[in-house]
Specification:
mainly beta; seven-stranded mixed sheet; UDP N-Acetylglucosamine Acyltransferase, domain 1; globular
């Protein structure tokens, strides 16, 4: 199954988009990003440079969806060099900081500060940015 990249999506030519990924119009994928199999990146999500996204990760673009109206939530941003493990769910409007790590299977409902590691459902901090070397 080839990746689906809708017209109007911005994908840097150095990004790697694996099989089964869906990138919707308005989504932005930066330089040297790697999206593993079956990642969903909808409108309103921006991945900066060198972001890794594990298989099966879903970015949501509307916390309160309604039929017949476009998503109204703010932009979801993943800063440079962040790592998101497999099968994560990232809610809309979340900001994931530079070099942050989201453990596999986490459900991210709040912002993740730079350099911080979060795990679980809902995601909780297990290591703060200042703890990283």
């Amino acid at each position: 199954m080839k990746p689906v990249i809708e017209f109007g999506a911005t994908v840097h030519p150095t990004a790697i988009v694996s099989l089964g990924c869906v990138i919707s119009r308005g989504a932005v994928i930066g330089a040297y990003c790697r999206l593993e199999h079956h990642v969903c990146v909808p409108n309103g999500v921006a991945l900066k440079n060198r972001v890794f996204v594990g298989s099966g990760t879903i970015f949501c673009n509307d916390k309160h969806p309604k039929i017949g109206r476009p998503p109204t939530d703010p932009l979801t941003v993943v800063e440079s060099e962040a790592v998101i493990g497999a099968n994560c769910t990232i809610l809309s409007g979340v900001h994931i900081g530079e070099r942050a790590v989201v453990g596999a299977g986490a459900v991210v409902t709040k912002d993740v500060p730079p350099g911080t590691t979060v795990v679980g459902n809902p995601a909780r901090t297990i290591r703060r940015g200042e703890d990283h070397g």
